[in-house]
Amino acid sequence: MTVTSFNPPLRTLMGPGPSDVHPRVLSALARPTIGHLDPQFVAMMDEMKGLLHHAFQTENPLTIPLSGPGSVGMETCFVNLIEPGDRVIVCQNGVFGGRMKENVERCGATAIMVEDDWGLPVDPGKVEDALKANPGVKAVAFVHAETSTGVQSDAALLCRLAQEHGALSIVDAVTSLGGTPVLTDEWGADAIYSGSQKCLSCVPGLSPVTLSRRAEDVIRGRNHKVQSWFMDLNLIMGYWGDSGASRSYHHTAPINALYALHESLIMLREEGVENAWKRHARMSKALVAGLSAIGLEMLVDETARLPQLNSVKIPEGVNEAEVRRRLLVDYDLEIGAGLGALAGKVWRIGLMGAGATPKNVTLCLGALQAVLTDMKADIGHGDAVQAAQKVLMA
């Protein structure tokens, strides 16, 4: 077998992630690699923390990118804040709440589950009842933007409830950061983790996190060593420490990937994070208008719908996998399948970061309508692209 250099096809990525990576970010990856303790690299690290403050809307000193995907951010928050014997209220309304439960249990703690139907936001009333019934719980953990369903929960209220009952809040913002408001300080959130490959439009493999001073105090006051050496924030902060301080070796950072994240965060600051939120909302409104024009329905009610992750109900009798295959083969367009309880029931269409554009909205709608029409699907006879353009031109 002859093995040659890998040259991937040029796709338009409109699934649940990764998202399209902007050429500026791809270009940053190709810059010369320098040492992870090089003074110039250390200076870039300090800039990175400031840029993440803008993205997270926080002044938390402990705001850094971790070396690993969003799952590393999730696990880092849990292993540093949760100890054996703790009790944690875990909200589950999709796949990723279930992963939080796994993390709690692997820390030797007890997960007290608050469950809601997939496609619905976390019910704050249920959370408040659980807090009252379980005084002294260590934390409340929930997914702000549930990628498996496209639903957004009320993070401000859930964080406030946790704080009122003396509990920490641990928030999954993997899909929300950069796409919808993540207001760390305003919410009083204690730990938020995200990922580089969604609305930040960076390559996968980095997890921005921010932790409050209260969370820092909890980490310093632990009774047991953090169970993961690699994810021990006491050690990681020796490398990502205060501006101007000497840095201690912890691990070899993914240098070029950090160049890329730095560039994507500069682009977010140039646009303004508030403007990015508005752009994602506008693109989703146009997409939904186009889908509605051909009779396709959304899974999530408009009041709780994520603009950057749109779950679309599959018309009856349609081979959903064949539709996705046709889109990929004929249009180089990727959309996502349903997960877990929603497998075979929805498509997940992402409008994230650099991919949240009028061009992508109209490409997706035109291709989807063409494929469904060719497959003789029972859809409406409206013009999806025209309906979206009315919104885009308003």
From TrEMBL:
Q: Aminotransferase class V domain: from which residue to which, for each copy? A: 33-326
Transferase recorded as keyword: yes
The cofactors required by this protein are: pyridoxal 5'-phosphate
Protein source organism: Varunaivibrio sulfuroxidans
Family label: Belongs to the class-V pyridoxal-phosphate-dependent aminotransferase family.
List, alphabetically, the SUPFAM superfamilies matched.
PLP-dependent transferases (SSF53383)
Q: Which residues carry this modification: N6-(pyridoxal phosphate)lysine?
A: K198
Annotated Gene Ontology MF terms? alanine-glyoxylate transaminase activity; L-serine-pyruvate transaminase activity
User: What keywords are annotated for this sequence in UniProt?
Assistant: Aminotransferase, Pyridoxal phosphate, Transferase
Q: Which residues bind substrate?
A: R348
- Output this protein's name: Alanine-glyoxylate aminotransferase
Any transmembrane segments, and where? Answer: none
GO biological process per UniProt: glycine biosynthetic process, by transamination of glyoxylate
